[in-house]
């Protein structure tokens, strides 16, 4: 081969970009692809509409907050803070964390923006991503999204019942069967006596040796957490442990009874669950979780203790959870302020909707497709597209395609009812064709009257 060619080849090779190394997404992280957005839109629309109806107003907080915010609120000993937080030191040497849950940031914002000066309670709706360095598996991600409601400034049990009711309506209106698990963990006063009883129980007759290693440590630091340990042997022991509801002080007992009475009044089903405690330091009184109803995915399986509660056995599948946190605002530097809230995991809700094959309207479907033939027609129809879109019509196009056949194929895929076809002849005549995509019948109409013609046909089709 002549030398000249070799040199040219080498130059061309050097100019051609090399295929680079592919960097995949991080473990436990998820892309939301266009096909999945219809589920997100449905769930977010439902959450926003429902919350608005109950007087909740939207708030957003930053994804990054001071690490101390979570250490102080969720608690250094909680799994979220001790094991699962994404935290780092930033370029200024400040300790920062990616939000592992929404409540602490919302409470910080409530105090920082003087929301205690507003009429109370302040009812807040929050939607956003949450980060936990959890072990990824089905329905468990390291970045996931939550729908949170917080009612700050209301001590009445009505507020607890309202939250549980909203969560229930949210799932019911999405056609998902759930069962609310509910318990009261009392206040610091009644818990003191109960914790002594609980410790005595676990120390009795070699029970301690049956506990998992984590629970052996928890027994000294936070014995309440022994009740909701996920290990089987610990769950069995927890089933026999003294129940906190039996140790509630009068105020806490009355508060809990009221919550249950309101739920009964509203016909909201619940399961009293004595081992439900939630893993965070700030909860008091009412705690609850929303679990998928047993019948939904476990139909036909043998009845066991949890089936009696009509729930799917593993509580790691919870769709949402929440409770009252009357001490948190003050503890975080604000005034004494009662509060309660919940968080629902959006990915898990979507998984359930998919499991149930609930048919969803395809939002990408349009009403009218605009097809063109020739450069002049293309220019004219691009303007028409904008006019129709502005007038509120659900229009679609594929202006980069030139052949009518491929444009009609695209129109079919987009599920439109009508296609407008503009060619050279129609441009000259001041007309346009309307094609009924179902029957294939085409009509010539006056270009100037197209809007009225479309409205007439689309209205008739309703
Ligand atoms: P929690 O604050 O832990 O009670 O979480 C509230 C809700 O968020 C849970 O009931 C789940 O629906 C959801 N959730 C919690 N952790 C994860 C996770 N790692 N991946 C996906 N969803 C989660």
Describe this structure in words.
- The protein has 462 residues and is α+β, with helices and mostly antiparallel strands.
- The chain folds into two domains: 34-187 and 249-355, BirA Bifunctional Protein, domain 2; 368-459, Rossmann fold.
- The chain is 41% helix and 19% strand.
- The protein is built from 19 helices and 16 strands.
- The chain has helices spanning 3-15, 37-53, 67-75, 79-82, 103-112, 157-173, 188-203, 207-210, 213-221, 232-240, 250-265, 294-298, 305-308, 328-331, 346-355, 375-390, 404-413, 424-429, 450-461; strands at 57-58, 64-66, 87-89, 95-98, 122-131, 143-152, 178-184, 270-272, 284-292, 320-324, 339-345, 368-372, 395-397, 418-422, 431-436, 442-446.
- It has an eight-stranded mixed beta sheet with strand order 1-5-6-11-10-9-7-8, sandwiched between helices. A five-stranded mixed beta sheet has the order 13-12-14-15-16, with helices on both faces.
- Helix 2 packs across helix 15 (346-355).
- The longest helix has 17 residues, at 37-53.
- It is elongated and about 95 Å long.
- The structure holds adenosine monophosphate (AMP).
- Adenosine monophosphate (AMP) is lined by residues 101, 132, 134, 139-141, 144, 146, 318-321, 343-345, 347-348.
List the SSEs and their pairings.
Layout: H1 3-15, H2 37-53, E1 57-58, E2 64-66, H3 67-75, H4 79-82, E3 87-89, E4 95-98, H5 103-112, E5 122-131, E6 143-152, H6 157-173, E7 178-184, H7 188-203, H8 207-210, H9 213-221, H10 232-240, H11 250-265, E8 270-272, E9 284-292, H12 294-298, H13 305-308, E10 320-324, H14 328-331, E11 339-345, H15 346-355, E12 368-372, H16 375-390, E13 395-397, H17 404-413, E14 418-422, H18 424-429, E15 431-436, E16 442-446, H19 450-461
Parallel strand pairs: 1-5, 7-8, 12-13, 12-14
Antiparallel strand pairs: 2-4, 3-4, 5-6, 6-11, 7-9, 9-10, 10-11, 14-15, 15-16
